Amino acid sequence: MGLTQSIKINENDNVAITVNAISAGTMIREDITANQDIPQGHKIALCDIPEGETIVRYGVPIGYAQQKINKGDWINEHMITLPNPPSLDEMKFAVNLVTDLPEPPKKTFMGFPNSDGGYAGTRNILGIVTTVQCVTGILNNAVKKIKEELLPKYPNVDDVVAINHAYGCGVAINAPEAKIPIRMLHNIVKHPNFGGETMVISLGCEKLTLEMLLDEEDITHENVVVFQNVKGHDAIMAEILAKAETKLKKLNVRTRVELPLSKLLVGMQCGGSDAFSGVTANPAAGYAADMLVQAGATVMFSEVTEVRDGVHIIGERCINDEVGKKLIAEMKWYDQYLENGQVDRSANPTPGNKKGGLSNIVEKAMGSIAKSGRSPIVEVLSPGERPTKKGMIFAATPASDFVCGSCQLSSGMTLEVFMTGCGTPYGLALAPVIKVCSRNDMKDMWQDLIDINAGPIVTGAATIEDIGTLLFNEMIDVASGHKQCLAEKYGLHNDFTLFNPAPIT
Amino acid sequence: MGLTQSIKINENDNVAITVNAISAGTMIREDITANQDIPQGHKIALCDIPEGETIVRYGVPIGYAQQKINKGDWINEHMITLPNPPSLDEMKFAVNLVTDLPEPPKKTFMGFPNSDGGYAGTRNILGIVTTVQCVTGILNNAVKKIKEELLPKYPNVDDVVAINHAYGCGVAINAPEAKIPIRMLHNIVKHPNFGGETMVISLGCEKLTLEMLLDEEDITHENVVVFQNVKGHDAIMAEILAKAETKLKKLNVRTRVELPLSKLLVGMQCGGSDAFSGVTANPAAGYAADMLVQAGATVMFSEVTEVRDGVHIIGERCINDEVGKKLIAEMKWYDQYLENGQVDRSANPTPGNKKGGLSNIVEKAMGSIAKSGRSPIVEVLSPGERPTKKGMIFAATPASDFVCGSCQLSSGMTLEVFMTGCGTPYGLALAPVIKVCSRNDMKDMWQDLIDINAGPIVTGAATIEDIGTLLFNEMIDVASGHKQCLAEKYGLHNDFTLFNPAPIT
Ligand SMILES: [Ca+2]
Ligand SMILES: [Ca+2]
Ligand SMILES: [Ca+2]
Ligand SMILES: [Ca+2]
Ligand SMILES: [Ca+2]
To answer: Same domain for B296 and B401?
Structure first.
């Protein structure tokens, strides 16, 4: 009995979500009894809602009643009409710039400084970037050999990673949108975890030329292997191994030093969200993000289709018109991209989201943007662009976990925080990923896959601030190499996945 | 000196290609002297060609002179205006159905029969298909363990392969074009090399549900692992290994038997083509294809953007209007797809193609379609569809080597023949790939990566029929497991790459 049976977020809400599965007839609040069995995390009507009336959660309209809804009814996705997305032509910028951010418990971390003066590394990795998928077969075998035979000789190097992808040839390289995958590859070469050591594998006849991938001064004999210039398989293998060893020697002298958090670039995203994500994990991440920003760090949040319905809220946090206009441009680009594919933002929610109680994209969006906290938004990035400002940044990317993570890596992310409701073993080869779940029973199910449990917020056993601070400290520990996240412990690596909106030829 | 300095293909041609690099002043034919240095494989004018006049190779117009061209001039890509593509609205079908195909030296091979009565396997593989990229990290580690700990116990099984991909979630699953990646995944589960053993790894909350991937009767506890139903990392690993072992036991009893070639499904494609590809490797492959068809086998050729400019020639070979109309539909779909991306078929040729003497897509196309030989075309497939007819089939796919190969695998291909000019180490995990090069110096450079050299055709040391017969015999040997191709020997595996023309969300 009692109030922990359901969670109402905003005083204007006319729905609450159930903390656990509830049987018909259960009293969930003083004057409200469930009229049907209601699954965990799903919505219950707190009052009668006439047909066509607004359904309010997070204090915002998440849709309209398709039929009369009675107090105590379970409200599922089929009972809600999706509202129109917020207009992009009537946005207000810079009207909600908060300054009262929470004080961080620490302001430094132990990172690998980079000589370019940019963000520091959180790991020390030999990254081998490819121009084209053609080289993947030989390169993968070479990397296996490098890890077995060479890497043990260089104990300060954490890993050797081939950045394979399906781009580079058989693509419309001059299509307008080809700039996105090309930018992603160009920028991944300079990832802060690679320590400025460039190693690129090329076939020789591909469309994505070395000149498109590298700055001119980086196209050197030491940095590049071109298969078609080498006399056969065994010679190619030998050349890759020899060049890798030269790079490993250099990387092996990198050492961690205490650095201000202004040298840390964190990415945030969510995947497999449920109705608790927006109440527990994402707000806790938002609190941690606010502390990072207060400490001078840079934090990116992303996932355009999950921001689209809260764009008016994000717009108000943009520090000026220039930032706001780029936000609109990215949103409009995505609206058009989806329209070209004959879909719209309603294509985002998954069966898992819906089973978890998220009826539509508006409800999902309001939970998703909670991970960005309250800080002013200082910059908006196109997919894979590198930040030029420090603070909270909206990095426009698809919501697809792999594409989002890869875009954030291309932007230079060295640590990701990933919120999940249903659970995912997601991990990246190029940066550690801390996974935060939204519910106690998720953590119970996957003890060895979920790093941080935000579930205690549901029951009142912890506050958003408690879990946010816990997460902040975990981020510093993992970034500093004092601790491995669970995805690292098990070596869970999702593919580097380019965003290519241009045609394949 | 003499006639082997240049190759003229059709008596109507007003250009020839150079057999080797030629210096200015060299006499290449009785009355023709090179006016400039000409790279190997590039075109030389056999007569004066006034501005605007047609340039003819393969007996077809490959474009128009942008300026006056003198007899003996080097003709490069900047001197040729691309003609309009053949109209798709004035096609003639079934007017060139040949019956005089070459007799094959053999009509059987040693394959693994399948109980569904369909195509036989050429290899015996445990294929583990994923619904979504989320599962990749754990699955890759599991496959490593399976190969180390279990596979050695089952010596009749050739390999264990995870079919990872970037699809499954974070995609517009209801977009019209989503049917292509979904079909590819649905069909890859039933690949002939998997022996009817289905093993699928799912997360649990993804958009691509088990119901979309599998037939209802295949969704069983034995066939499927759903991560979100299993209690954590170690338990998931244990369940994958246990289910894999059950499958390995069953696969281990498969044996090769002598089968008619009607049980063999071969795919053909080319990549990194040069001006010799259309003179040597592709025509030899076409001759071998004709022998396969004559023996009752099924042969697919693909690469829409490389067929587009020869579509009128292909159309005449379609056995009836129904097949022809599907050909047009696939071509129109691709024209529109490219137009949506603000490009056209001219986006196909690569820097390598151009360096190799292929000035534009028309010239490339005429060489590319040579690999289909002369047989009647009995069926046209949409990307990833499975054939219902035996004989020569046009399987519409992108020309991208990885996407084309993956589409052909989804169509059930168990052996691929791959023609190359510049050279690629291309290989597939699910089927052997025989690589055929177009030039002697390519084979000299990559002795250990090129299976068959069609270069002797250039110098007259071998005929198209000689190399075609050699290739036919190699195909039978490799399909029968009597021989490994070089990509297999070194374990060169390119990624399974889905064709997804629909948006990412
Ligand atoms: Ca998300
Ligand atoms: Ca996501
Ligand atoms: Ca074996
Ligand atoms: Ca080709
Ligand atoms: Ca190709």
So the answer is: yes
Range of the domain at A174: 111-251
* Nearest residue, CB atoms, B398 vs list A353, A422, A505: A505
Residues A316 and A448 in one domain: yes
What is the spatial distance between Cα B373 and Cα B375, in angstroms, rounded to a whole number?
Answer: 6
**Of the residues B199, B216, B251, which one is the last residue of a structural domain?**
B251
CA-closest candidate to residue A433, choices A487, A481, A493: A487
- Tell me which residues of chain A, numbers 379 to 408, contact chain B at a CB-CB cutoff of 8 Å: 398-404
Cα distances from A220 to residues A143, A197, A236, in angstroms, run 21, 12, 17
Q: What's the confidence (pLDDT) of residue B347?
A: 84
Residues of chain B above pLDDT 90, percent: 94
pLDDT in tens, A111-127: 999 999 999 999 999 99
A 235-264 near B (Cβ less than 8 A):
236
Instruction: Inform me whether the pLDDT recorded for A222 exceeds 50.
Output: yes
Total tally of structural domains belonging to chain B: 3
User: How confident is the model over B158-191, as pLDDT tens digits?
Assistant: 999 999 999 999 999 999 999 999 999 999 999 9
Ligand minimally distant from the alpha carbon of residue A307:
1
pLDDT of residue B1: 36
Residues on chain A touching B425 (C-beta within 8 angstroms)? 134-135, 137-138, 227, 233, 236
Q: Is residue A499 one of the residues assigned to a domain?
A: no
By percentage, how much of chain A surpasses pLDDT 70? Answer: 99
- Tens of pLDDT, residue by residue over A285-306, are 999 999 999 999 999 999 999 9
Please tell me the predicted confidence (pLDDT) of residue A351: 87
Assess whether A230 and A288 both reside in one domain: no
Round to the nearest angstrom and report the end-to-end CA distance of chain A: 61
- Residue A2: pLDDT band (50, 70, 90) is very low
Torsion of CA B86, B332, B316, B470, to 10 degrees: 100
Contact assignment for A141 to B173 by CB distance below 8 Å? no
How close is the Cα of A390 to the center of ligand 1, in Å? Answer: 23
> Chain A residue with minimal CA distance to B274?
A205
Q: Are residues B23 and B130 in the same domain?
A: no
Side-chain half-sphere exposure of B182, counting CA atoms within 13 A: 20
CA of residue A286 relative to chain centroid, distance: 13
Dist. CA A269 → ligand 2 center (Å): 5
In the structure, ligand 2 is a single-atom ion and the residues with CB under 5 Å from it are A 269, 271, 399, 401, 404
- Please tell me whether residue A86 adopts helix, strand or coil conformation: coil
DSSP SS3 for B282:
helix
ipTM score: 0.96
Whether A326 maps to a domain, the answer reads yes
Average pLDDT on B154-161 reads 98
Residue B269 Cα, ligand 5 centroid: separation in angstroms? 5
* A176, A232, A422 ranked by CB distance to B342: nearest: A176
B503 is a domain residue: no
Is A460 in the B-facing interface, judged by CB distances under 8 Å? no
- For residues A342 and A457, state if they share a domain: yes
Rg of chain A over all Cα atoms, to the nearest angstrom: 24
pLDDT at A347 exceeding the cut of 90:
no
Chain B residues 185-204 with a CB less than 8 Å from chain A: 203-204
Claim to verify: residue B361 and residue B465 sit in the same structural domain: yes
Tally of CB atoms within 10 A around B3: 13
Contacts of A495 in chain B (CB under 8 A): 133, 136, 164, 166
How confident is residue B436, by pLDDT bands cut at 50, 70 and 90? very high
Residues B286, B344 within the same domain: yes
pLDDT above 60 (res A480): yes
The domain that contains A30 carries what CATH number? 2.30.130.110
Which of A213, A229, A504 is most worth mutating to test chain B (most B CB atoms within 10 A of its CB)?
Answer: A504
Inside any domain, residue A496? no
Amino acid found at A460: G
A290 shares a domain with A344:
yes
* Set of chain A residues whose Cβ sits within 8 Å of the Cβ of B360: none
Contact call for A490 and B138, based on CB within 8 A: yes
Q: Which of A505, A430, A406, A411 is nearest to B166 (CA)?
A: A406
How far apart, in whole angstroms, are the C-alpha atoms of residue B423 and residue B352? 10
What's the CATH code of the domain at B124?
Answer: 3.40.50
CA distance B50 to chain A (A): 31
The yes-or-no verdict on residue B30 having pLDDT over 90 is no
